[in-house]
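Quick start: what a row looks like.
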Amino acid sequence: MSREPVRPTRPLLWLTVFFALGIAAERVCPLSLPSAFIIGFPALLLLCLAFLCSKSRERSRASVPVSLVLFLALGFALARVAAPLVPCPPGLERVLDRPHTLFIADIASPPDFFPDKIRLTLRLRSALLDDENVPLDAGVLLSVARTGVERAAWVPGDRVLARLTLRRFHNFNNPGGYDYVMRQAERGIHARAGSPDDRFLVRLAPGNGLPGCSVFRAVRSTVDRFRQESLFWLRKHFDPDTAAFYAALLLGYQQLISADWKEDLNRVGITHLLSISGMHLGLVSMFTFWICRKFIRRLCPAALHRLSDKQLALWPALAAALLYAFLAGFGVPPIWRSLLMLTLGLWASFCYRHADSLTILAATALIILVIDPAVLWQVSFQLTYACMVALFVIYPRLQRCRLAAIHPVFGGDRMAGKITRPFEEAFHVSVAVNILVLPLTVFYFQGFSLAGFIANIILVPLVGFLVLPSGLLGLGLLAFNESLAALLLQFGAWWVTLAHHLIRWFSDLSWAYFHVGPFSLLGMAACYLALFVLLSPWHRKRKGAALCALALFMAADSAVAHWRTAEDQRDHLLVDFIDVGQGTSTLVRFPDGAAMLVDGGGFFDDSYDIGRAVVAPFLWRSGIRRLDYVVLSHDHPDHRNGLRFVMQRFEVGCLWTGALACRPGDRESIETIAALRGIPVRLTHEIPGECAIGRCRVKLLHPSQKYLETEWNGDINNASLVLKIDYGETGVILPGDIGQSVERVIFGTGTAWGNVVLGSPHHGSDRSNSPFMVERLKPRAVVVSCGADNRFGFPSPAVLETYRKHGVAVYRTDRHGAVHAVSDGTRWEFSTFMGSSGGSSLSGGY
């Protein structure tokens, strides 16, 4: 009797893995292949598979590798076909940057509420251009300023007439930066717009759709209107922090949580509690399932002649989960991923089939990847499935470590066991999830929460069994009895307050969160390989040998990388002008290894933490763990705000600040942060006029004490610290935001300035960058730090013309991205992130 061909267990799991590998291969190795080949090759593999499966058993053995290669090719082909149009569809180019254009658009998804604005996702249908109706099909993010009146004005499916000025998205173009433009393009969104209020939006009659669409639209609109009204009710009856917690936990509005509380949640490692996912949907479905089973047994026993009470109760449970998914904003990926997984699991139960966890997990992943291959690169997708794999693979192994094994008092029937069991389960879940998620977390966020291992033991049961049930019941009753709903929600609010105090306490612990800097893809792969070895059934000696070999390989790789970094910096002065949008930040690395950061960028309204999102990752990627000097040229937000995170997370030797006085009462000031961390602070009059850092000379050109006392006009820009760093025959001048009057004071002497690189004063403003300065300096190149489409019009065309006339190479961070300048003491070499090595004006995210 011939043996059966050996096939891998859980075939769907392996097919999904190879499908995902095909998608990854398309992104990592974007081969330029003709469309016929992309479509034809998987088709040929499919024919081969059909041929092999239809023949003898010997030939059918080859069907396994052919199937895997087929799914690999299908993943590659689908990713190539579904690749988004970047930067935007051709038809949209015509209306970009065109002021106050009329558009007809549909609201594509539920509004997202922020403390100061509402964000709407619009699907443009047409534009009115010169009495011509131009068809369009593109997504736009519209930010509408919030007014004092809170009402459910806009719901998905509304058709509107809008007068908008569309702008492009832009990245912060630095090495290793987040590709915001690509992320939005993958969502089908290619432009942004703003409106002072919703008076510029006029509701129109909905367009004609397929039969049944009007019913679906009406149901969806009703649910989302109730969702918004519930949000307004919560904000009216509870304090802002409690209302924001409820809004995130119950309704899916994540953006109303204050920045301080977000920081606390991140440090404690419990942001997952407020991300509506499987826990929330599972609780709703289980509660409905339990109620329906009781109802059927007592009131409808005749229905049990054909189907069991379990089968009958599954459908109301699924319907309740679906309703809650819509109520929580169905468009959020974690919600519909969890709903899909729940649906497959309930269907297996209905059919009396044993639901294999990993197979269901693979099925949901495959369905999602077929619908949208780009979702593979979303951090939430990767973290979700890492968590689920941890629960299915690692968590069962931890069940052997029970308190009951330590002492019988914790047995299942004892009171102590019943009390401690939820916390014991939470601990096992926390450990299992953190083990598998930790490498991903460090890779994407350059840090991890140590407090999360303990905090989850307390907060998961607290929120999951007290806050969430009372909140969901109160939310459901809000449509019928507001008084009863208020009682339940107030009961939950007490526990929210307790949770808030616990979160704050954990967050204040010095060891709560650790920033570890960049974590390479190779390092993450090594961690998962080591975990695979530990979980494998191999013998201990074999495991030990494999782990030792892996450790030696990683140590050698780290040593080589460190040697290369040291070689690149040896005998060279490195200057990096970081792309921080409309702001300035410059990293200077001296030949002896010392590092200086001059300014940190920042948004004027402080709505985005440039330090956390842009500057710190750039420093970590550059191998910087310690900054010997941090310099604030002057106390303006586009230079200051990004330094806060850097001062909190990096080892800093000394702070030089152009602020004319410390602000000890301001807990957000960098001087206060420096005082708390014991970092020496030198104000303008305390900074040495000239000092040596290795083989470089650092000179403070401005301001002098005499200037501040007798000549200064009170303009903070004109009190900017101006530094000149000399290395051999070369130098770099970092002038802050000084104006033309100060330029004459500094550069009016007959000093030979040498082969210098100039940071353009005040981002290329025509109130600075005087022809006098350019003539005196004759710089080798000038770097303009400015944001794309900035409202100031920087750099000024007149300034660019001045530099052009004098033959000065111009680099701009808004067009070239980060600018890297290297000096060997005799000459400068330049490179840019956008790939241009010249200095002509060429044509992250915001």
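That is the whole record. The radius of gyration is 30 Å. DSSP finds 28 helices and 26 strands in the chain.
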